[in-house]
Design brief:
This protein has 501 residues and is α/β, with parallel strands linked by helices. The chain has helices at residues 15-26, 54-59, 65-75, 82-104, 146-155, 209-215, 217-222, 234-241, 307-314, 333-338, 355-368, 377-384, 388-404, 482-500, and strands at residues 5-11, 31-35, 47-49, 110-113, 130-134, 159-162, 164-172, 175-183, 189-200, 223-226, 252-260, 271-272, 291-293, 322-327, 372-374, 425-437, 448-450, 456-462. Strands 1, 2, 6, 7, 8, 9, 17 and 18 form an eight-stranded mixed beta sheet that branches. Strands 10, 11, 12, 13, 14, 15 and 16 form a seven-stranded mixed beta sheet that branches. Strands 3-5-4 form a three-stranded antiparallel beta sheet.
């Protein structure tokens, strides 16, 4: 750090933090960004939700604002601040267009609108909200564009202090006026003042087992991996130490793609993923609604639903895990395409999943013993540690309904009924992959952090996954790119508001 006083201090340089820094600097504020890691550009997400972006307008994609906001509120049973949903809906396109014009296009990349979001039942209600950060060749995501956001913020005058960790917020006369930080290499402590205030963009708490046990104990059991190794909850804790209020119930974004060894006990299996580049146990195919059974070998829910519903349903079953059953034929491009999945699991661009990648990943997990392959259902059940007769009966019953083109047991759409009749058969024991916790600090419409009385804590702002009021319970993944957009949009707003304070 070049100075011991700035106007604005942003804690965290990922999606919300980078956008906050750029927005505040764009308004002329003297900005310092601290981040406990050595980089953050790789963390920026490539599918970003918006309403009425220029790319969507050009593609003829239209989503009704009130229809979507009411869907989100209903999905979360009203356990959200609908004012925040409105603010996101009304500001997402400005953020999206700024990112397109100021960050991507100068590098040859651009935003491409997702053209559709196929669904047939209300259970799978979906919206074409995705804006894809597209590489110059137009065929794939532009990975790592976050480095360009950070470079833009630096160009605008923001300073970045890497490997610098927030320890405490400094409060004087009821106002947050700075931070105590630690150099993670030397452990040297430094006090830095902020005349306008501090924006917390520190993410959630998924890698902190103690906080998971305190705030989301069921999530600790239903998730077997967390892909959020940076998310230690430090920003949330620091704010609560100065009186901030936090959401009282957990919220999270979870993928049903965590393959684990047979006989895994979820009470003691919770691995912190070191992505990138390592993805232990990753099974992308888990997000396809194929036949899934509990550890007794019995089908127990409609597999066709938002990803996280699988872990919710499994939490009511013994062992909190599921077994996924499929065949070689299922993995053909033709059959995978029939499932019409959304977002990153969608087959082919604007998703990034391909049949070749699916088949390679299954073979990789086979070599690790996390996927099993067999010539009979009996053999597969034995390899997966499932009751043989139960699994045989479940598969027989499932195939009868597939042949009848009607799921009389749980009502899965017929286009997602795929027979399990031809060897070789495949199976895996799967649980959740926690991408991020989403319950966070309560904020108002200007991203200012609130205390338990609903009063503003002067000088303290929050954006991204450490801010709350926007999500509850399960993540609505049929609104592709919503978490990323929440972080980017509210980060940009927080930067603007604090600079104008």
């Amino acid at each position: 750090m070049k100075n011991n006083e700035y106007e604005v201090i942003v804690v965290g340089a990922s999606n919300a933090g980078g956008m906050a820094a750029a927005a505040a600097a764009e308004k002329g504020a003297k900005v310092l960004v601290i981040d406990k890691a050595g980089s953050a550009g790789y963390l920026y997400r490539e599918t970003i939700a918006a309403l009425h972006s220029k790319a969507q307008t050009k593609a003829g994609v239209s989503v009704d604002r009130n229809e979507l906001v009411n869907f989100l509120s209903t999905f979360n049973q009203g356990n959200v601040d609908q004012n925040l949903l409105n603010i996101w809906a009304d500001n997402s396109s400005e953020m999206m267009d700024w990112l397109d014009d100021e960050i991507l296009r100068p590098h040859g990349a651009y935003i491409q609108a997702t053209p559709d979001a196929y669904y047939e039942t209300e259970r799978n209600r979906a919206f074409p909200t995705g804006n894809e950060v597209t590489a110059p060749d137009g065929k794939y995501w532009q990975m790592g564009y976050g480095d360009w956001v950070i470079a833009k913020a630096e160009e605008l005058g923001a300073e970045f202090a890497w490997r610098t960790k927030l320890e405490k917020l400094i409060v004087e006369n009821g106002r947050v006026v700075g931070v105590n930080v630690k150099d993670v290499k030397t452990n040297k402590m430094t006090t830095v003042k902020a005349t306008k205030g501090v924006i917390l963009c520190t993410g959630g708490y998924g890698s902190n087992k103690a906080l998971m046990q305190k705030w989301n104990p069921l999530g600790l059991k239903t998730n077997v991996y967390t892909d959020s190794q940076r998310d230690d909850g430090s920003g949330i804790v620091a704010a609560m130490e100065v009186g901030a209020a936090k959401d009282e119930e957990p919220a999270s974004i979870v993928f049903n793609r965590g393959a684990v060894p047979t006989a895994t006990n979820t009470d003691d299996f919770y691995e912190v993923d070191l992505t990138p580049p390592d993805d232990p146990g990753y099974l992308w195919l888990g997000s396809y609604p194929m036949l899934k059974v509990n550890l007794n070998g019995e089908r127990f829910f409609n597999e066709s639903a938002p990803y996280q519903f699988q872990m919710n349903a499994a939490s009511k079953q013994p062992g909190y895990l599921s077994a996924m059953i499929w065949t070689e034929k299922t993995m053909s491009d033709e059959n995978l395409r029939k499932y019409h999945t959304l977002g990153c699991s969608r087959l082919g661009f604007p998703g990034i999943f391909t049949g070749d990648e699916a088949r390679k990943e299954v073979n990789d997990r086979l070599s690790e013993g996390l996927v099993q392959k067999a010539d009979t259902i009996k053999e597969l059940a034995e390899k997966l540690g499932l009751p043989v007769v139960n699994l045989q009966n479940s598969v027989t019953r499932y195939n009868e309904m597939v042949a009848a083109d009607k799921d009389d047991d749980f009502g899965k759409e017929s286009y997602r009924l795929e027979p399990v009749t031809e060897a070789p058969y495949y199976g895996a024991i799967v649980g959740g992959r926690l991408l991020a916790t989403l319950d966070g600090l309560r904020v108002n419409s200007k991203m200012q952090v609130l205390n338990k009385q609903g009063e503003v804590i002067a000088g303290l702002y929050a954006a991204g996954n450490c801010s709350g009021g926007f999500f509850w319970g399960s993540y609505p993944d049929h609104v592709p790119g919503l978490t990323a957009s929440h972080a980017l949009t509210f980060g940009r707003l927080a930067g603007k508001y604090i600079a104008e304070a």
